[in-house]
Amino acid sequence: MDPLHQFHIKPIISLVIGKYDLSFSNSALSMILVVTLIYALMAYGMRNRSMVPGRLQSAAEIFYEFLAGMVRENAGHDAKPFVPFVFTLFMFILFGNLIGMVPWAFTFTSHIIVTFALAIFVFLMVTLVALVKHGFKFFTFFMPHGVPIWLAPILIPIEFISYLSRPISLSVRLFANMMAGHTMLKVFAGFTIMLGSSLGAMGYAAGMLPVLINFALIGFEILVACIQAYVFSLLTCLYIRDALELH
Amino acid sequence: MAMPFVPTKGSLSGSSGDLASEDGFPGLKNLEERLSQVRARRVSSEPVESSDAASDESAKKMLALAYRIGTEMVAALIIGVGGGIAIDSWLGTRPWGLIIMFFLGAGSAVSNIYRSINGIGYAIGYRKISGNDEKRQNGSEPSDGRGGGSES
């Protein structure tokens, strides 16, 4: 009955080395499942490479075209080497979100440590790309052009905080949306059970109402799952563009 | 014979039968033309799309923007307040680090939101909009869609 019970990490194969708990958990199982599914879609879908694509090949091509287009539009032409990265990121998050919509499945994107790991990787990569490409010119990033010099002591910290807030906003957005959505579904489902157990037959009749709400919410959650994957990879593209061009 | 033909959406329509006919490959004549069209689409930042797809795309971008704004603010405040507390416990300047960093965090929260609404031309370290930038900015700005930039 606890609506947060669905987020519990349960070790499947316990493994503790020294101080570190390296158990194979349901979260890890879910990630491996997602990676397997993506690989299966891509490898099995593209096995024929026919001119007129079949259903799976079509799906694989749509994903590729969509992401390649997104990187081209939002990150510029120099960002072509980053297409595989953004593609991997998008597919991992999208499939992770969507597989969480299957009953009894575990949603690993509802854990902030997972989303933060993804976000900090994007952040470090973008910073390194900017540093390698532009060297010390990177630090002019924090001082917008045409600003009077006496504003620098205020503006540079503000820009720096703004830059540091990128991985936080990336990870919190994804985690909060997934966790809130799944909790809400569980809370509404819990209403039905509570009504039924306390009011009997009349309660079950009234319990139809939360079911109807859940029916709408599940559709909404699937939309959120796709939109969040899109937002995450879109922002990655924008950050890559910032790093490459540095204005 | 393997054709150097890229099957993107739209380019196959209507003329796919021409390729199959034997008498001198009439499809090959406009194949070059279509190839250059596809290549132009690869190079230009504005994909050629119908207005229906464009409005669908802009709705998706609006929704994506709406999801961005709230967390942009919270994230900057988290960094500001968290950094302030960290500075205080490190240097023992309680409560001044928290107070100053809170206001700086709030400032960057507001500027984060201002930037995400105005599009990427206002990204951190924004210098000036060159011609190239302006074009791309139109593509990313939800209100504009892709009405103007397709002449490139």
Helix-strand blueprint:
The complex is a heterodimer of chains A (247) and B (152).
Chain A: E1 11-13, E2 16-17, E3 20-21, E4 24-25, H1 26-45, H2 55-75, H3 83-99, H4 112-134, H5 152-199, H6 201-206, H7 208-245
Antiparallel strand pairs in A: 1-4, 2-3
Chain B: H1 16-20, H2 26-43, H3 51-91, H4 96-118, H5 131-140
Helix pairs in contact in B: 3-4
Beta-strand residue percentage of chain B: under 5%
Provide the low-confidence segments of chain B as ranges: 9-21, 127-152
Mean pLDDT of chain A: 90
Helical content of chain A (DSSP H or I, runs of 4+): over 70%
Strand order of the largest sheet of chain A: 1-4
Report the sheet-strand fraction of chain A. Answer: under 5%
The helix-strand sequence of chain A is EEEEHHHHHHH
State the end-to-end CA separation of chain A.
Answer: 53 Å
Largest interface: A-B, 44 and 43 residues
* Main structural class of chain A: mainly alpha
Tally the helices of chain B: what do you get?
5
The best one-word shape of chain B is: elongated
Please write the string of helix (H) and strand (E) elements of chain B. Answer: HHHHH
Q: What can be said about the biggest beta sheet of chain A?
A: 2 strands, antiparallel
Count of DSSP strands of chain B: 0
What's the mean pLDDT score of chain B? Answer: 67
Rg of chain A: 22 Å
Distance between the termini of chain B: 34 Å
The helix-and-strand class of chain B reads: mainly alpha
Oligomer class: heterodimer
Number of helices of chain A: 7
